[in-house]
Amino acid sequence: MPPIPEKFTGYAALHEVDGKALTMKVYKYTPKKFAEDDVTIKITHCGVCGSDVHQLKNGWPDYWPTSYPCICGHEVVGEVVEAGKNTEHSIGDRVGVGAQARACLECQYCTKGYPQYCEKGFHGTYQGHFEDDSLAQGGYADYMRTKGAFAVKIPEKLSSEHAAPFLCAGIAVYSPLRRFEAGPGKKVGVIGIGGLGHLALQFSKAMGADTYALSSSNRKMADCVKMGIEGQDFRSPPLDHFRERNATRLLVPPAATFGTFCIAGLPEEKLPSIMPHYFILGISLTGTQIGSPQKIREMLEFAAKTGVRPWIEVRGMKEIDQALKDVEVGKPRYRYVMKN
């Protein structure tokens, strides 16, 4: 095994102007000093997430302002080449790292299995900070060093390229489906059939729920049928329903009495205004944020067992610029995975 380099090499937006243009440049950086809680991973694959585009373009300046240089990528799969004594990993393990790199692991939420809601803050796989205040960099790179607690072993039945999209897109929808007990006798409607939505459909069906796809057009109907959705369970309402002036009719449909509307994405735009009358129907409006390493492990095992798989296109890591630009305009069907 070759020696671990002192500096890791990735594809970064060096300045905000590069981020706005989605122009990545080769960037070498010094990773955090290795600690016994850490693992160093030689990256083989990394999925491309819509969040990467938002972060690179500084799309959330009031919530998650971007620090440059910025290497994105938080659907990381690779081989452990260095493992601390305080981790459960061994050299040679194939692991995945999702959107979270660190938590205190001591607060009431961490100890209850919800480190993504850590009271001391959320530290992302990129743009997060470690104890020494070093900035975490993501998976569009050759190596990554992160906390071993957030590196999850990949089941043998899952290929690395298929495992990668589960680590953000997959857990973003699997976690709330489990939280709200999707299964036989429950109805689940998925609005937006993209990177997250196409996995939500498959997970919901595999859990035994009556599953419906809601899209802005009929373009993805054939794909949804291939994912197990019956033709009559694909809904494409008039486009006006998706315009802001009528968005409440889509956002909280009157038929969903006692139902829950869960937002799994994180757009840059504000939500449309909602009249309080909708809530007298017993409807709940909530959100979700990824899932714990334990929940990711459960999801990967579930996917391996049931055959749920992301629809992917594998590209070389050097093509990350074009992949990001294609994600921005909605080209993926339904997830790009970069390969070293």
Count the beta strands.
Answer: 16
Distance between the termini: 16 Å
How much of the polypeptide forms β-strand, as a percent range? Answer: 15-25%
Main sheet specs: 7 strands, mixed
The backbone outline, from C-alpha atoms, is globular
Question: How would you name the oligomeric state of the polypeptide chains in this document?
Answer: single chain
Based on CA atoms alone, the radius of gyration comes out at: 20 Å
Helix content: 10-25%
Structural class: alpha/beta
Mean pLDDT: 92
Number of helices: 10
**SSE order, as H and E?**
EHEEHEEEHEEEHHEHEHEHEEHEHE
Ranges with pLDDT <50 over ≥5 residues?
A: 241-255
Structure description:
The chain is α/β, with parallel strands linked by helices and about 350 residues long. It is about 25% helix and about 20% strand. It has helices spanning about 15-20, 50-55, 110, 160-165, 170-180, 195-205, 220-225, 245-250, 295-305, 320-330, and strands spanning about 10, 25-30, 40-45, 75-85, 95, 100, 125, 145, 150-155, 185-190, 210-215, 235, 260-265, 285, 310-315, 335-340. The strands form 5 sheets. Strands 3, 4, 5, 8, 9, 15 and 16 form a 7-stranded mixed β-sheet that branches. The model is unreliable at about 240-255 (pLDDT under 50).
